[in-house]
Design goal:
Elements lengths: L3 E6 L1 E2 L2 E2 L1 H14 L4 E8 L3 H8 L5 E6 L8 H15 L3 E5 L2 H14 L2 E6 L1 E3 L6 E6 L4 E5 L6 E5 L16 E4 L29 E5 L10 H9 L3 E4 L1 H5 L20 E5 L5 H7 L4 E6 L6 H4 L2 E4 L2 H14 L1
Parallel strand pairs: 1-4, 1-6, 4-5, 5-12, 6-11, 7-11, 13-14, 13-15, 15-16, 16-17
Antiparallel strand pairs: 2-3, 8-9, 9-10
Helix pairs in contact: 3-4, 5-9
The protein binds flavin-adenine dinucleotide (FAD).
Pfam families: ETF, ETF_alpha
InterPro entries: DHS-like_NAD/FAD-binding_dom, ETF_a/b_N, ETF_a/FixB, ETF_alpha_N, ETF_asu_C, Rossmann-like_a/b/a_fold
Keywords: FAD, Flavoprotein
Length: 322
C-alpha cells in the first residue's frame, strides 16, 4: 500500500519555487504505488503558483492565502498548514531545505510527533527500505539515515533531486480560509532586500562567484556580466563580502548560503574549507586562480591558472560569439 505524502510548497514573487517541484518528485518516489500526494501552498497571493503546481500530477493542491501571510512568519504559516496536516494525516511531509522550510519543518514534526531528516541530497530505495543521504560536517562527509517509525518529516536541499516532470492532468485546486491565530506574538514589520538581483542564489543553475582576488566592487562587474550571460547568479566568498566588494547576501559557505548549481565558477577564491562547505556539492566546478597551488584546484573539475581579469572577459567574449 502506498503512502500519503504532503508537500509544503513555496513561492517567491508569486512564482512557484523550483525546490517545490523537486519536493513533488521526491513525494512521488516516497508515495509509491497506490500512494496519495497533496500539496499545500501558503502566501499572500498564491493563485499563479498554485496553477503551476496543479499542472503536476497529484490528488489536490490546497491554497491558504491571506494578506497577513504575504511574508513568512512562523506562527502564521504553521497555523495555516496545521489544519491541512490534520486533515490529510500524512505518512510523509516534504519541504524544501530553505529558510522557511527549515523553520517550519520541526514545528510540523513536533505537532505530528514525527522523526525528521533534514537537508537531504538523495533518496534511495522504496517502501520501508528507503534511505536518505545528507551531508554532514560542512559537506566533508555524508550520512545515510532511515526512519524506524512514522510519520516522516523530510527537508530536501534545493538543486539536488530531479524536478518533477510536467503532466497534462491538472490537479484540483482547493482554497482554504485563514484567520490569524490568537495571540500572535511576533510580526514582520518590514522586509528589506539587500541585493538588487532577485535571482535566488540557492536555486541558480550557474553561479559565478568572486573572492578577495576580485579586489574591488568594480572588479565584480565582469563576473556579473558573465553570470547574466549564463543566466546565472552572482556569489562571493566571505573575504570578498568582508572587504565590502559585495553584499553579504551573496556569501557562500559555512556561514553563508549553500549552493549546488550545475556549474560553479570560482574566481579569485583560494578554496578555504569554510567556503567549500557552501559549494563543494556543485555538479561541475571551474576555478580561475593565478596561484596554481590554490586548494580550490583540489576540488575543481576544470582549473585555469591565470589572472581572472584577463580570463573572464575572454570567456565572456567567446560565449557571446555563440
Ligand atoms: P583568499 O583566501 O585571500 O584567496 C584569494 C585568492 O585569489 C588567492 O588564492 C589568490 O591566488 C587569488 N587571486 C588574487 N588575485 C587574482 C587574480 N587577479 N586572478 C585570479 N586569482 C587571483 N569563507 C567563505 O567564503 N564563506 C563562509 O561562509 C565562511 N565562513 C567562515 C566561518 C568561520 C568561523 C571562519 C573562521 C571563516 C569563514 N570563512 C568563510 C573565511 C574563510 O576561512 C576564508 O578566509 C575565505 O573563504 C577566503 O576567501 P577568499 O578565497 O576570497 O580569499
Amino acid at each position: 500500500m502506498g503512502k500519503t505524502v504532503l508537500v509544503i510548497a513555496e513561492q517567491k514573487d508569486q512564482k512557484l519555487r523550483q525546490v517545490s517541484l523537486e519536493a513533488l518528485a521526491a513525494a512521488r518516489q516516497l508515495a509509491g504505488d497506490g500512494g496519495n500526494i497533496v500539496s499545500v501552498l501558503v502566501g499572500g497571493h498564491v493563485d499563479a503558483a498554485a496553477e503551476q503546481l496543479a499542472d503536476h500530477d497529484q490528488s489536490q493542491v490546497v491554497c491558504v492565502a491571506a494578506d497577513t501571510l504575504a511574508s513568512y512568519d512562523a506562527e502564521r504559516y504553521f497555523a495555516a498548514v496545521q489544519p491541512v496536516v490534520d486533515e490529510v494525516k500524512p505518512d510523509v511531509v516534504i519541504l524544501g531545505h530553505t529558510a522557511s522550510g527549515r523553520d517550519l519543518a520541526p514545528k510540523i514534526a513536533c505537532h505530528l510527533d514525527a522523526g525528521q531528516v533534514s537537508d537531504v541530497v538523495a533518496i534511495e530505495g522504496t517502501g520501508a527500505e528507503v534511505t536518505f543521504k545528507r551531508p554532514i560536517y560542512a559537506g566533508k562527509a555524508f550520512e545515510t539515515k532511515r526512519f524506524l517509525a512514522g510519520p516522516w518529516v523530510v527537508t530536501i536541499r534545493p538543486n539536488n533531486l530531479q524536478a518533477d516532470a510536467k503532466t497534462g492532468a491538472a490537479a484540483p485546486i482547493v482554497k482554504r480560509p485563514y484567520a490569524d491565530p490568537a495571540p500572535i506574538r511576533t510580526q514582520v514589520v518590514n522586509v528589506q532586500s539587500k541585493s538588487g538581483d532577485t535571482r535566488d542564489l540557492t536555486e541558480a543553475k550557474v553561479v559565478v562567484s568572486g573572492g578577495r582576488g576580485v579586489r574591488s566592487a568594480e572588479g565584480f562587474a565582469p563576473l556579473a556580466e558573465l553570470a547574466e550571460l549564463l543566466d546565472g547568479a552572482l556569489g562571493a566568498s566571505r573575504a570578498a563580502c568582508d572587504a565590502g566588494y559585495c553584499d553579504y547576501s551573496l556569501q557562500i559557505g559555512q556561514t553563508g548560503k549553500v549552493v549546488t548549481p550545475d556549474v560553479y565558477i570560482a574566481c579569485g577564491i583560494s578554496g578555504a574549507i569554510q567556503h567549500l562547505a557552501g559549494m563543494s556539492q556543485s555538479k561541475l566546478i571551474i576555478a580561475i586562480n593565478k596561484d596554481g597551488e590554490a586548494p580550490i584546484f583540489d576540488i575543481a573539475d576544470y582549473g585555469v591558472v591565470g589572472d581572472l581579469f584577463e580570463i573572464i572577459p575572454k570567456l565572456t567574449a567567446k560565449l557571446r560569439e555563440k
